[in-house]
Design brief:
This is Replicative DNA helicase. The protein is α+β, with helices and mostly antiparallel strands and 511 residues long. Helices cover 60% and strands 11% of the residues. Helix 9 packs antiparallel against helix 11.
Length: 511
């Protein structure tokens, strides 16, 4: 019974990790399932997409990791065209060849989206989603360059490597055996795979820094996982590098000592392999040292980010403006609860200090009460924020209305779009960013007909009262007989900015 319980617990607790480990294989089989039957009526269904994927990953590893260069679409096109010609005898015209290559490339990069699959996590008791990309893009010098991801490198290595906590150590042990057996050519390939593994760790470090920029907790978990699995083998790996470097130097000395002039061709070939192997191992040592420095940099930066986030969480203030701007940007009204909840759920916890009990019990009031002197202060008038706001709005409304009525007297008929242009030219500023102006437009659109001479008799809204205030002794004769209609034009929308639009309105003077 105990054994059954243990393995069931193991199934539940390890399932999520196993699904995450499986995700690196998912894109390959997903792409391989893609049939070319639908492309050109199945004309190229004999092409093996799995082979194309493996070949493409090798191209990216060579260019990204060995040559430190991004891959352009033109490079991918030339590489794939060569495969189609060499392996499938497909010599297509330029147009059809480009259509086929575009189709293949879109499937490999999944149209720029991550490959995603869902699975059930028995520990969390909910459906989880796992996402992975094989290729990612970056813009460099106004050109799109493509790079292989760390998961894709790991998948490529797993297709021919033994899974272990330190692949670099395993490869170096294999390298030692190859040097001892004088298989220098095979040793060069091993060192290249070591460089691949170091590059993959470098990619992973950069990805973790990116994760830390938007999700600190996930970034911390990824950082700890990287240090606990791969980075802890640095000392052992560095020792193996030194050992293999000495073995290569020793092999070079021996081949020089035992040079056989009768077999000069083999001697020269082996010496060339050893020199190439020595060059590769030096490159690997350099990249490994760079990875060590990079991991130290990751540790420092992650500590700084964690410290910054911790201090931010300890802040005693709330940035209402940031939440307001984010609400507008995301167009999500639910975010307003972060503004309102702190105001609606204020709780004042009042406590009584028990030490004050003794003071209460021993307190003796004076027999005679002290007379409190009453001082009369002068009454001070305070202007509230609402009064200031109302005064500003009323002032702006008067300006807008006076300009509107002058335009009606001059033109007789015009649209809101034309009035907007008139205001921009007159004020020479960001008048269309003034919130009072749109409040003015909203108020004036509430009625379809205005007779300025009868507003005082038929005053219905605050806006009517504001218009009446315009009719001073000075301009009363000018505006008192003005009548005009306000007609919305719903089919015509005026785009103020990317955030909102307003309906156009027609203003027409009536005799």
């Amino acid at each position: 019974m105990n054994k059954e319980f243990n393995y069931i617990d193991e199934i539940i607790s390890e399932h999520n990790e196993r699904m995450q480990n499986l995700k690196r294989y998912y894109p390959f089989f997903k792409i391989r399932e893609i049939s070319l039957d639908l492309f050109k009526e199945g004309k190229y269904q004999f092409i093996d997409m799995g082979y194309i994927v493996i070949a493409t990953l090798r191209l990216f590893i060579e260019e990204n990791n060995f040559n430190d260069m991004g891959v352009s679409f033109e490079q991918f096109s030339l590489f794939t065209t060569e495969i189609l010609k060499r392996d499938y005898d497909l010599y297509l015209d330029e147009k059809e060849n480009m259509q086929l290559i575009n189709y293949i490339f879109d499937k490999i990069i999944n149209d720029g989206k991550p490959f995603a699959y869902n699975y059930f996590d028995p520990k969390e008791k909910k459906k989880m989603s796992s996402r992975i990309k094989l290729i990612e893009s970056k813009i460099q010098d106004n050109t799109i360059r493509y790079y292989i991801t760390s998961e894709a490198i790991e998948f490529y290595l797993d297709t021919k490597e033994i899974k272990d906590e330190s692949k670099i150590s395993i490869q170096q042990i294999l390298l030692s055996k190859m040097i001892e057996s004088k298989n220098f050519k095979g040793g060069i390939e091993v060192v290249k795979r070591i460089n691949n593994e170091v590059s993959k760790l470098m990619y992973r470090k950069n990805e973790i820094l990116n994760i830390l920029s938007y999700n600190v907790f996930e970034g911390i978990r990824a950082s700890e996982e990287l240090f606990n699995t791969s980075m802890k083998w640095f000392d052992e790996e560095q020792g193996l590098f030194d050992k293999n470097k000495r073995l290569i130097e020793l092999a070079l000395e021996r081949i020089e000592e035992n040079a056989n002039l009768d077999n000069e061709e083999d001697f020269l070939k082996n010496r060339e392999f050893i020199y190439n192997l020595e060059t590769e191992i030096k490159r690997a040592i350099s990249k490994h040292s760079e990875l060590l420095n990079s991991s130290t940099d990751l540790k420092i930066k992650s500590d700084e980010i964690i410290k910054k986030v911790t201090l931010n969480k300890l802040k005693m203030s709330f940035d209402f403006k940031t939440v307001y701007e984010k609400t507008l940007l995301l167009d999500n009204v639910e975010l307003l609860k972060y503004l309102m909840n702190p105001l609606l759920k204020i709780k004042f916890n009042k406590t009584f200090n028990l030490k004050s009990q003794d003071e209460l019990l021993t307190y003796r009031p004076n027999n005679e009460e002290e007379i409190e002197e009453v001082i009369l202060d002068e009454e001070i008038e305070y202007t509230s924020l609402d009064d200031i706001e109302d005064e500003r709005i009323s002032h702006n409304f008067i300006i807008f209305m006076e300009l509107l009525m002058k335009c009606l007297l001059d033109k007789g008929e015009f649209s809101l779009r034309e009035f907007n242009q008139y205001l921009v030219e007159k004020f020479k500023g960001d008048i269309l960013k003034n919130g009072d102006y749109y409040s003015f437009v909203l108020h004036i659109a509430q009625k379809s007909y205005y007779d300025i001479s009868k507003l005082q008799e038929d005053e219905k809204t605050i806006f009517d009262k504001i218009i009446i205030n315009i009719l001073t002794t000075k301009n009363q004769n000018e505006f008192i007989g003005l009548k005009f209609k306000v007609t919305p034009i719903p089919e015509d929308e005026i785009e103020i900015s990317s955030l909102f639009k307003i309906t156009n309105i027609k203003f027409e003077r009536v005799e």
